[in-house]
Structures are given as C-alpha cells and as structure tokens.
Amino acid sequence: MTTTQLTSEIRKKQSFLCVGLDIDLNKIPKFLLEKEDPIFEFNKAIIDATHDVTVAYKPNIAFYEAYGIKGWKALDKTIRYLNEKYPDVFTIADAKRGDIGNTASMYAKAFFEDLNFDSVTVAPYMGRDSVEPFLNFENKHTILLALTSNNGAYDFQTKQLEGRELYKEVLEVSKTYANSNRLMYVVGATKASYFTEIRKIVPNAFLLVPGVGAQGGSLDEVCKNGISENVGLLINSTRGIIYASNKEDFAEVARNEALKLQQQMQAYL
Amino acid sequence: MTTTQLTSEIRKKQSFLCVGLDIDLNKIPKFLLEKEDPIFEFNKAIIDATHDVTVAYKPNIAFYEAYGIKGWKALDKTIRYLNEKYPDVFTIADAKRGDIGNTASMYAKAFFEDLNFDSVTVAPYMGRDSVEPFLNFENKHTILLALTSNNGAYDFQTKQLEGRELYKEVLEVSKTYANSNRLMYVVGATKASYFTEIRKIVPNAFLLVPGVGAQGGSLDEVCKNGISENVGLLINSTRGIIYASNKEDFAEVARNEALKLQQQMQAYL
C-alpha cells in the first residue's frame, strides 16, 4: 500500500485509528479458550467489528512469539485474514527489529514477503545498514522508533547528541537513507509537546502514535500538533479497545470504543 | 548458568569461542536438503563436531524466523538438543529485541522460559523499562548492544551524547539498572581499539564480540585489550566455521576451523 492510498483510506473512513492486536490469553473472554485457535478467533471478531472505523491493525509480535509455534500460526492466520478480507487496511508488524545487513534482510523477508505485512517497526540503534535492507521493499514501509512513549525514552532518546536530542538526530540522519520516502516513525503521544519540533524535521512523514488512552496521551494535543497535509498520523489504541470487555459482547464493546475515537478524529479531517 | 560457571567452562575447555548458528538453506550442504529438518540436522552435526572446543552457541533468530513455522520448529529442536545433550554450553538467542515493560516480559518469557536460552541480545534504545524485564530472570543474562561491528554503528553509537559517546552512555546508564550484574554487552571486534575504554566502564562484564574473521576484526587485539580477570570474553565466529565447507565433510572442516581459533585463544588463558 502506498501512503497516498493510506491517506485516501483515512479520508474515506474519517479515521486514522490503528488497533493494536496484543493478545494475552489471560485477558480474552474465557469462552474463546475452548476454540481450536482462541487467538485467531479473538482477532477475527475484533477485526470484523472494527474494520470500518479503523485504518490499520498492529499485532505486537512479542505476544505471538511468547506462545511459540501456536502463536506464530495465529499470527499467520490473522495477517492472511486481513489481507484477504480487508485488503485496504494497513498492516503493521510491531516487531522493533534491528540487525545488520544480511540479517535485516532476513527479517524484512519474513515480515514483508512471507507474512505480507505493509510495514514493520524497526529500532535505529545500529544505524543505516540495519534500516536500509527494510527500505529496499517497494510499497512497504519501515516505521523507525524515534521517540517512544515509555519512561526509558529519557535514558537516551531525549539526551543531547552533538547538539540536538538523539531522537531528532535519528529523524535527521534517517532522511539520508536510501529510499527514505518509505520511512514512517514511532512517536509517543505522552510527549505531544514534541510534535511541533518533529514536524519541522519530517513535515509529511506518517507518525505512528502509541500511548493515547491507557498510556495517558491526549488525542487532542497530538492531532493539533501532529497532523500534516496528508494527515500523516496513525494513532494506536490497544487495551482501551480490545480489552474493554471480556464477556460475550467483547467485539461489540470494542467497536463502540473504536467508534468513539473515530468520532473524535473526524473533527480534525 | 552463572558467569562463574561460564568462566569455569572457559578455563576447562581453554576456549572462549562462540559459534554462530545462522542457518541459510542456500549455504548448507545440498545432501542435507533431503532430510526432514535440514536446519536441525545441520546444527546437530555442527554442535556434535565442535562442542568440546566451544563454550557458547548463538543462533541468530532472524534466520529461523525467515523460514516461518518450519524455522521455529528447527530452533526449538536445536535449543532442546543443546540443553539436553550439552547442558554446560552457554546459549545465546541473538534476537536484538527491545520493547516496553509488558512486551519485554513476553519476549523474556519466550526466550528464557519457553526456549530456555541462557541469554538473549537486547537493543538499548528504549531504555531502562525495556531492559529490566529481561534482567528479572535469575541465572539468565541480558546481552545489551553497546558498540556493534557494522558501519551503521557510526550513525549514532559513536557520536557524543552529553559529553561522551552514546555507546559509553549505554554502558554507564545500564549499570544503574536493577540486577545489572546480569548484563553482558555486544562489542564489535572491528573496533578493538575501543576495548580499553570499555574495560574502564565495565571491568568484568562479559563482552560478546562478533566481527572476528569474516567481518575483519583481529582476535589478538581483542584478547589483549578485552580480557578481564574472569576472562569476560565470548568471541563469536559464524561463517568462517559453519560454512567453511558445504560438502559431506562440513562438520569435520567446521571442527578444524573452531579448533584453530581455540588454539589461538588458549594463549590468553
């Protein structure tokens, strides 16, 4: 999917909502545990109930990996379901990978080709030759961690690296990478005041924004400071939507929560 | 495994060699491709042939992930084989993971509990709360990326962050993390001149050193500048050992290459 298509989907659905699919078997409704593949059944129900107000889905790969082969099968089924039934939805493998050339290519192949995700999150610490192998893939997007929403972000990301904060250096340097037009960035919503600064460096890049809702960020502040001409925002919510109810009505309740966010978003479109 | 046990294994085998198990089906001997699980058969033969001169094995997870469920099964069989047949060997999941609290715990659980690796490599960019969940596990080790062996390391790692290079800041800050005694560090051998500096900050921590051999680092320089009282070095070689031959004799040739490195290493012990 191109960013032009993504922007057009956003305008059509009047939503830049991304729903996180971080599946914890302790949190999903009990009755699903009797099914053959509870993770996939849960995801399918959430997707079916929310797809018309959602432009992107983001499984965090850790949650699947933690269930071993069963988890990978559920991930595989989920992404196939999305690609077959809702091909206009943008898909994000939240993997935060980062390794050198050769190995980065293997990760890129796994997520972009085998699983056919539209995008993958990547860590910047190892620099250019850990990112460019991902950027080689046409119509695929690499979402680089810039400023994350956790407290640990203050350990290094906001410290001054040769005159500017490390996260700004990451943004600037990454613009010089080959095929940098395929870059997007993770920017935590808990630091909405930084959005103005970030837009000076990457005026039109898509920003994936976690941390709205459960993690405490303000949707309003993010939208005001972060929105660009092509919208350029994907705002993620996970727990506030998928775990809003753990009863039989979980999908319906999830839809209501997604709808609330979509209704707030359309005011900015 | 404790670091005391690791040092004792190193002294017993007179080796601090780590063999990388980065399996590429295009590079392994053709006759293995007819087997039911070529990746595992290859690993098993390499391990059986090299275990007495090797203290650690390091599968890079990307190579397994790239083969999907088949790859995960091969990884699972490989680590089980190592743990059952050679429990005194130190095992490293080279995963370079990095994510926040909740998610980091899922990754830690996957590698430390489900797969029962002794250690996992972790990226530092997201800071304290992305590393400490790994450090919670007793007798397990978290190998933090400090200074990597690729060119991209110059993008950020060697730049000045508030008065000292970022990689030094990573070393210093990580020492304040809870259970920091369970930390080890990745330090690329292509920058052997940095080892003296690094030893000033972490005098006794184990350093996992990739980049000797194929990536161009000098074993001699690393040993001279990097060795500590408890040895504190694990020097990795992958391609120079496991792909030294792709014929029927691959395991025997791999053993000879491992033996050569072990013989160089014993001079420093």
UniProtKB/TrEMBL annotation, chains A, B:
Catalytic residues (positions): 96 (proton donor)
InterPro entries: Aldolase_TIM, OMPdecase_type-2, OMPdeCOase_dom, RibuloseP-bd_barrel
Domain Orotidine 5'-phosphate decarboxylase span(s) in chain numbering: 16-254
Pathways per UniProt: Pyrimidine metabolism; UMP biosynthesis via de novo pathway; UMP from orotate: step 2/2
EC number: 4.1.1.23
Catalytic activity: orotidine 5'-phosphate + H(+) = UMP + CO2
Single GO MF descriptor: orotidine-5'-phosphate decarboxylase activity
UniProt record, GO biological process: 'de novo' pyrimidine nucleobase biosynthetic process; 'de novo' UMP biosynthetic process
Leading EC class: lyase
Record family assignment: Belongs to the OMP decarboxylase family. Type 2 subfamily.
Protein name as annotated: Orotidine 5'-phosphate decarboxylase
